[in-house]
């Protein structure tokens, strides 16, 4: 143990607008010692997620803000080095909110064991983890897609969006994906069987959506917000369901944005718009993971990962989310 | 019959922005003759409702636009003069979409008989009719108010708003009403037991709402939209429910309005926003009328009516809705 050196990535200042490298600092730290019932873990993969931007600001959100000058917490996968809990033993692969550090200590209730023989361990942070469950419950529970309906997905090539698109196809829907570059759209169309895609950076989004949705929009799974949503709203059908999963287009704005009022569209179409966060569905996670795992085993579900190597590159990987650099789940291999 | 003269009010041009008197014309017409299974009715009261503004435009809404140069249709109460249906007989008081005319003919399936001995007949257009049912199902089914929660009602002194406020109090909630003049607010506070009221024309609405809702907003029943809604959104609580019933502040705008984006508030608070129209609940109308009638009989529910005399004053009464002239249900006595 004496030879091990810990490193941590701290948030040292809150981003004003877009996050920058100077908001983060990598520091040396001691390797923590597990107490009774605790487990020492070596980090293998870090999850890099858009929602973490919200925690970097000092405003009300669904999770409290990160503290300044403390290690950034976030989903991760690790290997158990030492266990003072009967529930885990050295060599176990686990996932939990371990944080951006090489070594961490966690309580047994904060960890979930991963079976590395059933699927690649990284799926625990993607298709079989938070993003997959977010897609599953958001689309099926709030969206209630019916055979033949049209689903529009913003952020379609992201960790959540790629799964939403595929569940939409499994449910027999016409799926229209909106993403930020042509390579992503090629992937969506040719690998994930998405019916139509739109590059919001180069297309006339309103016109392209009208053409891609000749029968209107029944379900809108919104990861992005902003101008893409402005273009979707006039196309919604009677009884449409709009799932608010993320608003990444707005996260780095310093002032609240203005846009066309959406209430008239919701009113006239008796439509529903609902925000959610995945922890609302904690009691049904086993159902979600079970179904996603089954689709994965049956080859009905594919997943994409964008893995950046090197612990110290985590801040850069995080910034890349807002530049739309990732296809699928963004991970950092430690 | 030969002595009877019919008059009709036609929509002769679509309003550009706010409706004006020149959009309407009163014409003489023949008294229609009932065919087999039809009923001839003499109109007693006309209902004047904000939603009718939507039908005057040539845009997509939940009901088709009025045709130009035809009689305006709308809810009304009348007396049966002649019946070629076994379901009705002369002297019966009925309600239906009779239109702005002195005499009309309707099929028996288009009429509902009113018992004039159980409540004043005008209640069939108000507290025991469409506005009451709108308040009842919107607040209870979508809003799901719980004891001790805070409800904000915009358009609180209107036909729907006055009932929403009172049902909120019956359900044990703190009710905050927003209306456009102090007399209305006095009525809400002193007659309907509303906890706090705000005059949106004279108050700093944001500040006033913050003070009136120290524990945030759990349910927002929105009849108005626009700036009042902008002020409510930042105050919504986790799991808030927002009922979109009307957007009268926007009905007369010639271009879609812009405002602060609301999706971030809905997302962060996992809140729900839902539009509805009352006909979605047609299968449950008997339940609603039953409960509203019981509250009325028990003295738990009051209702206000603003009755203008004279058939030819219907257009003026309609314009008055947008000037906020009515306290409670706006009716025209023919």
CATH topology call of the largest domain in chain A: Quinone Oxidoreductase, Chain A, domain 1
Just name the CATH architecture of the largest domain in chain A: Alpha-Beta Complex
Find the biggest chain interface: A-B, 36 and 36 residues
Q: Sketch the major β-sheet of chain A.
A: 7 strands, mixed
In terms of DSSP E residues, the strand content of chain A is 25-35%
Unreliable stretches covering 5 or more consecutive residues of chain A: none
Helix content of chain A: 10-25%
Whole-number average pLDDT of chain A? 94
User: What number of structural domains do the residues of chain A give?
Assistant: 2
Oligomeric form: homodimer
User: How many H/I helices of chain A?
Assistant: 9
Overview of the molecule:
The structure is a homodimer of 334-residue chains. With 334 residues, the first copy, chain A, is α/β, with parallel strands linked by helices. Chain A folds into two domains: 6-125 and 304-333, Medium-chain alcohol dehydrogenases, catalytic domain (Quinone Oxidoreductase, Chain A, domain 1, Alpha-Beta Complex); 130-279, Rossmann fold (3-Layer(aba) Sandwich). Chain A contains nine helices and 17 strands. The first copy, chain A, has helices at residues 52-56, 130-143, 159-170, 182-191, 205-212, 227-232, 263-268, 285-297, 314-322, and strands spanning 6-11, 24-29, 38-47, 70-71, 76-83, 93-96, 103-107, 112-114, 150-154, 174-179, 196-199, 217-222, 236-244, 258-260, 272-275, 305-309, 329-333. In chain A, the strands form three sheets. In chain A, strands 3, 5, 6, 7, 8, 16 and 17 form a seven-stranded mixed beta sheet that branches. In chain A, strand 16 (305-309), helix 9 (314-322) and strand 17 form a beta-alpha-beta unit. The longest helix of chain A is centred in the middle third of the chain and has 14 residues, at 130-143. Chain A starts with 5 loop residues before the first strand and ends with a strand.
């Amino acid at each position: 143990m004496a030879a091990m050196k810990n490193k941590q990535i701290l948030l040292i200042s809150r981003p004003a607008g877009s996050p920058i490298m100077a908001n983060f600092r990598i520091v040396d730290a001691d390797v923590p010692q597990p107490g009774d019932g605790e487990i020492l873990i070596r980090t293998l993969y870090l999850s890099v997620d858009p929602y973490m931007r919200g925690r970097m600001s000092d405003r009300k959100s669904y999770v409290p803000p990160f503290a300044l000058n403390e290690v950034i917490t976030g989903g991760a996968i690790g290997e158990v080095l030492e266990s003072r809990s009967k529930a885990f033993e050295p060599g176990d692969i686990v996932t939990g909110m371990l944080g951006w550090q090489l070594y961490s200590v966690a309580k047994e209730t904060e960890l979930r064991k991963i079976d590395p023989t059933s699927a690649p361990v990284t799926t625990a942070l993607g298709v079989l983890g938070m993003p997959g469950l977010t897609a599953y419950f958001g689309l099926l529970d709030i969206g209630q897609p019916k055979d033949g309906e049209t689903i529009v997905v913003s952020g379609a090539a992201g960790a959540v969006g790629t799964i939403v698109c595929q569940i939409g196809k499994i449910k027999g829907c016409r799926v229209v994906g909106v993403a930020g570059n042509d390579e992503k759209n090629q992937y969506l169309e040719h690998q994930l069987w998405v019916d139509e895609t739109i590059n919001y950076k180069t297309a006339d989004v309103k016109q392209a959506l009208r053409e891609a949705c000749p029968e209107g929009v029944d379900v809108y799974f919104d990861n992005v917000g902003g101008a893409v949503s402005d273009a979707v709203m006039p196309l919604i059908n009677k009884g449409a369901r709009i799932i608010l999963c993320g608003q990444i287009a707005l996260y780095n704005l310093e002032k609240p944005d203005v846009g066309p009022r959406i209430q008239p569209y919701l009113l006239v179409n008796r439509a529903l718009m609902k925000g959610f966060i995945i922890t609302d569905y904690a009691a049904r996670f086993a159902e979600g993971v079970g179904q996603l795992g089954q689709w994965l085993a049956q080859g009905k579900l594919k997943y994409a990962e964008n893995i950046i190597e090197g612990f110290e590159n985590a801040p850069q990987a995080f910034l890349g989310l807002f530049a739309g650099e990732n296809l699928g789940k963004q991970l950092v291999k430690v």
